[in-house]
Amino acid sequence: QVQVVESGGGLVQAGGSLRLSCAASGRTFGTYAMGWFRQAPGKEREFVAAVGWSAGNAYYADPVKGRFTISRDNAKNTVYLQMNSLKPEDTAVYYCAARIGSYSGTVNWTDRKAYNYWGQGTQVTVPS
Fold first, then answer.
1. Cα 125 to Cα 127: distance, rounded to the nearest angstrom
2. What is the per-residue pLDDT across 40-99, written as a single tens digit (0 to 9) for each?
């Protein structure tokens, strides 16, 4: 089995920074990508950032480009999300997702359906 665990959320003032971490453990051989999604109250879960596991290609949602940086440590099966210049609209529960195991066809790492393992989420709050 695979477990995905996030950490690093909290409350930060607007303009501040936070670093989220996400570690996948268990049968993680064959990790293809890991990503971050977020869900604000009353809204659907949305894509934030993703990274391909082999080449390290990074993908970002437009609202976070230039402010957030995703990185990975393959040896630790861990992905990080460095969040700078945080805004109140970044307030949400942040979920880590992993694609572990093969897939067929073309995959879009910005799509929730591309991932087969999810963490429980970590709250990020930026007061207005």
1. 6
2. 999 999 999 999 988 889 999 999 999 999 999 999 999 999 999 999 999 999 999 999
pLDDT of residue 54: 87
Measured CA to CA, the distance from residue 99 to residue 116 in angstroms comes to 5
CA angle 61, 63, 93 (to 5 degrees): 80
> 99 near 33, Cβ under 8 Å?
yes
DSSP the chain: -EEEEEE--EE--TT--EEEEEEEEES-TTEEEEEEEEE-TTS--EEEEEEETTT--EEE-GGGTTTEEEEEEGGGTEEEEEE-S--GGG-EEEEEEEEES---S---TTSGGG--EE---EEEE---
What phi and psi values does residue 74 have, to the nearest 5 degrees?
Answer: -60, -40
